[in-house]
Amino acid sequence: MFRLLRVELFKIFSKPRSYIGFLAIAAIVMLLEIALYIDGKSYISFILQSLEQSFAVQGNLLNGYLVCFIILQTLIVQMPLLVALVTGDLISGEAASGTLRLMLSRPFSRTQILTAKFAAGSAYTFVLLLCLGVLALGGGVLLFGEGDLIVLKSDSLVILRSNDVLWRYMAALSLAFVSLLTVASFALMLSCFTDNSIGPIVSSMAVIILFTIIGTLDVPLFDKIKPFLFTTHMIIWRNLFDNPIDKLQVYTSVAVLIFHIVLFYTIALIHFNRKDIYT
Amino acid sequence: MNLEVKQGEIFGFLGPNGAGKSTTLRMLLSLIKPSSGNIQVFGKSLLQNREAALSNIGCIIEKPDFYLYMTAAQNLKMLAQLNDVKNSEQRIKEVIDLVGLQGRQNDKVQTYSHGMKQRLGLAQALLHNPQLVILDEPTTGLDPQGIIELRYLLLRLKNEFGKTVVLSSHILSEVELIADSMVIMNKGKAVAQGSVKQLLSTENLIVKIETEEAQQVRSILNQTPFANVIEKTEPQSISLKLSRSQIPELNALLVEQNIQVFGISYQRPLEEYFLKITQAGNVHV
Amino acid sequence: MRYIFLLFFFPFLVHAQSNPKQLIEAANQRFAKVISYSAAINLNFQIPGVQLEPINGKVYYKKPTKFRIHSKGIIFLPKQNPYYALQSVRDTNSFTAVPSGSEILNGKSTTIISVIPTANSDDLILAKFWIEDARQLIHKVQLTTKTNGTITVEQSFGLFANYGLPDVIKFVVDVAKFKIPKVVAMELNSKSKKTDPENLQKGTGEITLKFSNYILNKQLDESVFEETKK
Predict the structure, then answer these.
(1) B-chain residues near A14 (CB < 8 A)
(2) What's the pLDDT at B64?
(3) Model confidence over A174-222: pLDDT tens digits?
(4) Residue C105, exposed/middle/buried by CB under 10 A (0-12, 13-18, 19+)?
(5) Beta strands at B181-186 and B10-14: parallel, antiparallel or unpaired
(6) Interface with chain B: mutation pick from A106, A271, A274, highest number of B CBs within 10 Å
(7) Helices marked H in C91-206 — which ranges?
(8) What average pLDDT score do residues B152-179 get?
(9) Measured between CB atoms, does A108 come within 8 Å of chain B?
């Protein structure tokens, strides 16, 4: 099994497409950091304009923690796509290129092969997220320094003291990993149902966007189904920047996401074990 | 279908396109599940003991496909890792030399010609030194020189290395040259099975004589023991069922009778049958 | 925030005088004793729409008007510029002082003095002082300015009452309702806790400063009064 995992990791990381995600993240993070470096103060002023009528706000407002927060929010849609780009291709890509039969004629069970692919996809997701964390947080702190984090809401501000921020980011990235793992397992599941490389990737994104739209709309009918959509729980990392943190909500969302991961993986496993390989 | 392949022989899998050859081979590799029945490889059930069975099989199914963004060596190294091949570097070198890809192993597979990919396919099939080698139409896309080289290689595998080879093809002559046993498939069924010598014997050949005096030849033959073996008379030819050894006698008779013969050819019954099903695809046995 | 001077420029050891102007003049004289000070402070914030943990800092003052609070984190300070108010009441001819009754504050009897600038060009519209009868300490000030609305300052005294330096100052400021578009807040589909609606209703914010470890009349470097970058 470890041999299989090593091979799957090698395949992912030797494929040029896998690096699109890293390049995209680097480009987006860099652009955002430059933009905020140049014009971040106007953004801060816009946010605080009503408060600045009454108060003089003092401190390092535009700091690395805020920049990282803005970057993470911006990448809410892009990150699932970058994950699906690789994980959606794990089975269907090999089926399309004919290498799936090469793999399946090796002395490994289909369960082992699928599990190794899922593990490798998860490792890729982790590395991608780590890259984001290092660039956004590390780069942000390097360029803008540390300071208290201003967490924006439409009707209020939560300002977290700098010594209370770093652990929240670590926890948020961990939750983001669980969220992206849900996307990875979903894309992998779709990948098992088709021999077409692009189909699962596009389908994953379409579903995520659709569910996100449903989650955003304030329609009573949708309110009933929102709690069951995994996209509703994918942004739970944001809750870690509340004060105090609603732990019950966090635990609930994590549980829902894990449930979805197990569900998608199980469906993938059942279908993959049953399907006849004609490619 | 009931098949038995003896250890150490080359087994031919013949049939027209769509007969079910690839499907059967895929079943041997558990890529497709049979609707019923059991497959055993070296005494191990494929259903219950898949990994153990597969560990002793090397194969090329349809065209050999690889990870195009990797080099040949990387592909083989990865597959060696999967099959837990000991001394993989040495083994990779051996199979590369065996299939004649020396000097090209560090090139990306996407730069390979079809023939080179076929060779690489063979290399990966042999990499883990399997006892059973399954090759699905391995001569497809090869030039005549390549076909000959492959033929010699397969004979080497059998004679020198003691491998069992299952070779599928839609070209009878190709299989005839190297196979010990064979099966002919049509529409998912085995329609002829046995040793090559037996199935492609030179007894009961359909001998065709090309002549413009077909009716006259018929009249002549009706006076001889050949009368019973006349199969068909056409304006420009006459066909008889003879053994190979009887052809010179027939030829001498026609020369003696001053019959102008433009050609004598023969086909084995199985060959004729195979040609029919290959061309028409609608023959019932 | 700099208007806090206002409080320290008025003497805390002013004898109760029937003439309110005299009372204020005495306060001016009184504060002359304090040339500079530094102190540790703890800042606490109760601002509608803003959740902000308390934080420690350091405060520096130098006669006549230099005042700066340093803190590592983000702090909200009242905006009112004290110089105008200070200038307005320094010259006793530039304002009218009117006794406006009395009130019990912090258990102390205080006299209320209303100060109205005589010149229309001043930013200050009205100032009100609650001065303790017994010790002539200013327990409360209410300033109404043209540009910054109304600010109320409440003080309580402890160890340094003799110098007129408070232990606690509380500023109460009018606050506009905080609102930004959801898109700007990137709050689409967020499940974040909603802000307490009761908190949002309030129109005033409070900033409380707790002073400790006063160091009086020691040389202070000018760099401590430089504005820290935002």
Answers:
(1) 67, 69-70, 74
(2) 86
(3) 999 999 999 999 999 999 999 998 999 999 999 999 998 898 888 888 8
(4) middle
(5) parallel
(6) A106
(7) 182-185, 197-201
(8) 88
(9) yes
Please report the domains of chain B, with CATH numbers, ordered by start residue: 10-199 (3.40.50.300), 205-267 (3.30.70)
- Tell me the residue range of the domain where C28 lies: 2-175+192-219
Contact check, Cβ <8 Å, C188/A53: no
Chains A and C touch, using 3 or more CB pairs below 8 Å: yes
In this prediction, residue C17 carries a pLDDT of 44
**Side-chain-side CA neighbours of residue A15 (13 Å):** 21
Note whether residue C60 is domain-resident.
yes
Contact assignment for B79 to A102 by CB distance below 8 Å? yes
- Residue C52 has its nearest CB partner, among A54, A159, A235, at A159
- Residue C166 is assigned to a structural domain of this protein: yes
Residues of B in contact with A108 (CB under 8 A): 51, 82
CB contacts < 8 A (A, B) = 69
Lowest mean pLDDT among A76-80, A270-274, B29-33, B259-263: A76-80
* Chain C residues near residue A46 by CB distance under 8 angstroms: 180, 184
CA dist list (Å): A224 to A54, A229, A236: 42, 10, 18
Q: At B12, give phi and psi (nearest 5°).
A: -95, 140
Cα distance between residue A12 and residue A4, in whole Å: 12
Q: Report yes or no on C184 lying in a domain.
A: no
Domain boundaries, chain A: 2-274
Nearest residue to B202 via CA among B244, B246, B158: B244
- Rounded to two decimals, the pTM is 0.82
Q: Do A154 and C73 touch (CB under 8 A)?
A: no
Q: Do you find a cis peptide bond into A244, omega within 30 degrees of 0?
A: yes
When mean pLDDT is compared over A73-77, A164-168, C145-149, C188-192, the highest value belongs to A164-168
Q: What is the CATH number of the domain that holds C37?
A: 2.50.20
Partner-chain residue, chosen from B54, B62, B69, that has the shortest CB–CB distance to A15: B69
3-state secondary structure A146-178: CCCEEEECCCCEEEECHHHCHHHHHHHHHHHHH
Q: Is residue C186 part of a domain?
A: no
What is the number of structural domains in chain C? 1
Query: Given an 8 Å threshold on Cβ–Cβ distance, is A108 in contact with B82?
Result: yes
Instruction: Give contacts of C42 with chain A, Cβ < 8 Å.
Output: none
- Please indicate whether residue C133 or residue A26 has the higher confidence score (pLDDT): A26
Q: Tell me the H-state helices in chain A.
A: 2-13, 18-52, 64-74, 78-87, 92-97, 99-104, 110-133, 139-144, 166-192, 198-216, 220-225, 230-234, 247-274
B70 in contact with chain A, both atoms CB, cutoff 8 A: yes
Q: pLDDT tens across C185-214, in order?
A: 666 555 544 545 554 555 888 999 999 999
A160 with C53: Cβ contact below 8 A: yes
Distance CA B190, CA B199 (A): 13
Q: Which residues of C touch A71 (CB under 8 A)?
A: none
